[in-house]
Each structure stands twice: as structure tokens, then as C-alpha cells.
Amino acid sequence: MNIEMTTTSTSNRFQNNYLVQAWLVLLLASLFGFILAGVQATLGPKIEANKVNETREKVPEVILGKSKAQELSGGGGSLAIDSRFISVEKQGKTKIYNVFEARYPDGRVAGWATKVTGQGYADKIELLMGLDSKAENLTGIFILGQKETPGLGNKIEEDAWRGQFSGKSTSQPLRVIKGGASDAYTIDAITGATISSRSVTDIVNTSVNDLKNNLVMDVEQKGKEK
Amino acid sequence: MADQPTALERLIQGILPENPVYRQLLGMCPTLAVTNGIQSALTMAGAVAFVLVCANVVTSLIRNLLKPHLRIVVFTLTIATFVTVADRFLAAYMYQMSKTLGPYIPLIIVNCIIICRCEVCASKQNVWISACDAVGQSIGFGLALASIASVREILGSGMLLGWRVLPAAWPDWVIMVLPPGAFLTLGLLIGGVNWLQSRNVKN
pLDDT for A159-171, tens place per residue? Predict the structure, then answer.
């Protein structure tokens, strides 16, 4: 009698154990874990490549302009693009820029492009910014990602607006004004989307400020080496 | 189980009589969030269909092993796995679309349509019936998303899938592409469906 009771209670305790109760959950979790690891191992490299290509594809266009980039690729040439990272110390924080250095087939530096992000009106704005070989002028910008208001703020993507940045000087920060921008330091705001316009301009100003000296130093050093 | 619906009944029920969006009012998050364009709506419907079919089949296969108090954990685990697969797949092969849909693909995990089908059908009926049920519900969900997205895309941009539908003079109703447009369209379409339903009942 006594022995029987002990066995029942042991088996009861065993059956009520959390781990035993959850055997199916644990088994499925490990099985699914393996499946997901397999999926990640197969698709991971492709996803990474997508991310890199998305930016890289736009580099010639943002540095040379659309027509010249097409001319170059039409003539069978292409820019050699090197990617590297420049870290900038700012207010105790280190900011890392992914900079693409583009060279003509003959080895001359065509310019620089960098991927930068900043706060927009609705969400983060991600853009590619191009600088000429001496980092004196902007060659253009390209919006990679934005979630600004459709019909208003998302006009930052349109050629008509972002085209303004081509050829602007980097010697002083750009300012956003409402209509009538004509000199090398002003940008026209989009009607009804001043905040989005300012956000993009601020992102450009900040990155120019952070990178300009680094890039110029770089060019000078390389010049000396030659 | 004589009182349980058959495979064909399950399939048909999901499309209109028990449409997940218009009749059950489930899955409202993607319904409102990704219907500003027909392409994103159809991609979302496709992803949900994939997850729904897989989750229903797996749940149905293990239905006799389920413990009542742990069933929801198993459902969620299964759903989350297939959603992650769908998410990675989109990022690998439809990168731009995956960026457009953003967090709404991972959010399929908490889509009530799927867990509801696991609970109502897959945990009680065999694999064949569960698969039919999932297909029916997926078609219903796809139709609902496509109908809302077409209304919003046409009124919001005058175009459908890049084709101009309304004359170029149409002043694009930007509000239709913005979140309020989703609520307006959904409300009016649900109203329309209910009106049709009540007319049918009277006749």
C-alpha cells in the first residue's frame, strides 16, 4: 500500500513537472530554431548583398549626375568604387560614416558618396550624398528611404527638389528659405513641407561638416604620397 | 464529428460568408496599414496566405498532442516561425517591397486571423480540411485587402498599378493614401457589405 502510494505520487509529480508538460513546446522550439537557422544561413548573404547594392548602384549617379553616369556606362566605362568607414568624434560620441570613394577608370578621384541618416518629419530619412573630388561642392543627393507625408514631404524624392543640391558649395552651411533660392547656399523649401525640407538640409549640413576635413586631409595625404 | 464543416464548406465560408475582414473584423492592422497601394496589399495577402496555410497544416498535424493550456504557445511558436521565413524571403527576393512593408510583415505574428483559424479549425480537424480552410480564409483576406487598396489607390493617385484610371484632371485625394483614408474606405466598404447582406436576408 505504502509503496503503491509513493509510486503514484512520484509519477504524478513527474507528470505535473513543467518541463514534462511542455515537451511539445520545447521540441517544436528547437526544431523551428534549426529551420530558421537554415533559412538565415541560406538567405542572409543575399539580404546583405541587397543592402549594399542598393546604395552602391546609386553612387555614380549621385556623383556624376544622371546624364554623365549614363554616358560613362554607355561608353563601357564604370567608376571603381571603394567602400570604407570614417569615424568622427563628436561631443564624446563616435559617429561612423560609410564612405564610397569613386575613381574614373584612369585612377582620378571622381568624388565621394556617403550614406547618412537623420530625423525627418515622420521617421528617419536615409540619403546618399555626393561630394566632388575636393569636397568643395555637393554633386547631388539621392533619397534612399523616407516615410514623409505622401503628397507633401515625400516630394523630397523628386528630381526637381533634390536637384537643387547639385553644385551647392560646402564652404558654409546651407539654409532653407521659402521661395527664391538663387545663390550657392540656399535651398527652396517644398510648399507645405518646410520641416521635411529642413530635415534633409540639416542632414546634409551635418555630414558635410563632419566629413569635409577628413576627406580633404585624405586627398592631400594621397597627393603627397604620389 | 458530424457537426464540423467539411473541407468545401470551410473553403467557401472563408471567401465571403465568413470573410476575415468584412465579416469577422479580424486582421485590422494590415488592413488599415498596407492598403495604400495595391502592390503592397497583394504582397501582404500573399505573405499571410503562406503563413496561414503552413500554420494550419502544422497545427493540424500535431492537434492530438496539444495540451489545452499550452495550445496558444504552440500556435504562436508555429506562426512566428513561418512569419520569420516569409520576412527573410521578402528581404532576399523583393527587397524594395520588404522595405515598403517594414514592420508589418513581422507583425503578421500577431494577426488574429491566423491564430483564430488554428484555434477554430486546425486544432480540431484533419490536415486536408485545415488546408482548405486556410486557402479559403486567405482568398477572403486577399480580396478584402485588394478591394480596399484599389479604392484608395484610384482615389488617391488616379492610377491603378501604374495605369491612369481617372482623367488626368482628377485632383488626387491625398487623404485616401494617408491613414484617415484607410478608416474611411474600410468603414464605407463594411457598411456596403452589411447593406447587401441585409437586402439579401429581406428577399
Answer: 888 888 888 888 8
Residue A102 resides in a domain: yes
Q: Give the total residue count for chain B.
A: 203
Domain extent at residue A182: 51-225
Facing B99 at nearest CB: one of A29, A36, A145 = A145
Q: Is residue A6 part of a domain?
A: no
> What are B73's three cell numbers?
504557445
Pick the residue from chain A with its C-alpha nearest to B68: A21
ipTM over 0.85: no
Name the band, by pLDDT with cuts 50, 70 and 90, for residue A5.
low
Query: What string of H, E and C letters represents the secondary structure of A13-35?
Result: HHHHCHHHHCHHHHHHHHHHHHH
Cell reading at B54: 503552413
pLDDT digits (tens, 9 = 90+) for B97-146: 888 888 889 999 999 999 999 998 888 889 999 999 999 999 999 999 99
Look at the block and give the residue holding cell 532576399. B92
User: Residue B174 is nearest to which of A24, A46, A150, comparing CB atoms?
Assistant: A150
Chain B positions in Cβ-Cβ contact with residue A150 (cut-off 8 Å): 36, 156, 174, 177-178
CB distance A36–B81 less than 8 Å?
yes
CA dihedral over A182, A187, A190, A192, signed as positive or negative: negative
- B133 touches B121 (CB < 8 A): yes
Using a CB-CB cut-off of 8 Å, the residues of chain B touching A39 are: 84-85, 88-89
Q: What total number of domains does chain A contain?
A: 1
Name the closest residue on chain B to residue A47, using Cα atoms. B92
- Give Cα separations from A113 to A48, A69, B166 (angstroms): 19, 14, 40
In a domain, A16, yes or no: no
Dist CA A27 CA A43 (whole Å): 24
